[in-house]
Write a structure and sequence with these properties.
Length: 194
């Protein structure tokens, strides 16, 4: 039940971000397949019908999606929502293992690092693919790890509506969440990935 609520909450959040995001007038648009075309045909058509995105433009978009700040995180959620609707204009790799385990991103007190882990995986996988291993390690890895810490700390600072915990217990849970976030951050800085 809890996983269903979290999944539903994530889907609603992604949908809300997509629904409330306004695209600029000069934004790229992806051709849509007619409704009568099968999913397999759509996937095949999208692989061949999409215009090629230049390497510099793809890396520029990748940096915009993996930078610090709320605007970058909101844009990442927007593109995650588009991907879940079948659009992948930049051909990014959206695979994730959620911090290398199904339960590691769930924290006591209701804190959840699921999307922090997802965005971190997104940054690692796509920079390795499009910038190369050397450039990823030299120019992008630390920034992506710093964004990972920021995303987790944002989750730890989350306010709960109708919080069932007392203020003293919530403070303990928040402190434990921040400590866990720092532990995750130190692990990726040392090992390179969770």
């Amino acid at each position: 039940m809890n996983k269903a609520c979290i999944s539903l909450g994530g889907a609603l959040l992604a949908g809300a971000v997509v629904a409330t995001s306004a695209l600029p007038a000069v934004a790229h648009t992806e051709p849509k397949a007619p409704a009568s075309v099968s999913d397999a045909a759509k996937a095949d058509a999208s692989a061949t019908a999409l215009p090629m995105v230049g390497a510099a433009y793809r890396l520029q978009k990748l940096k915009a999606l993996t930078s610090k700040g709320d605007a970058s995180r909101d844009e990442w959620f927007k593109y995650l929502g588009l991907y879940r609707q079948g659009s992948n204009y930049f051909r990014f790799n959206w695979d994730t293992d959620y911090c290398s385990g199904p339960a590691t991103e769930k924290q006591p007190g209701g804190y959840d690092f699921t999307f922090s882990c997802y965005r971190h995986d997104f940054g690692y996988r796509n920079y390795k693919k499009y910038a190369g291993e050397y450039n990823f390690k030299k120019y992008h890895r630390k920034r992506i790890d710093d964004v990972f810490l920021q995303d987790m700390q944002k989750q730890c600072g989350r306010k709960f509506w109708a919080d069932p915990l007392t203020p003293a217990l919530r403070k303990k849970m928040k402190d434990a969440c921040n400590k866990t976030a720092k532990t995750y951050y130190n692990a990726v800085r040392t090992a390179g990935h969770l």
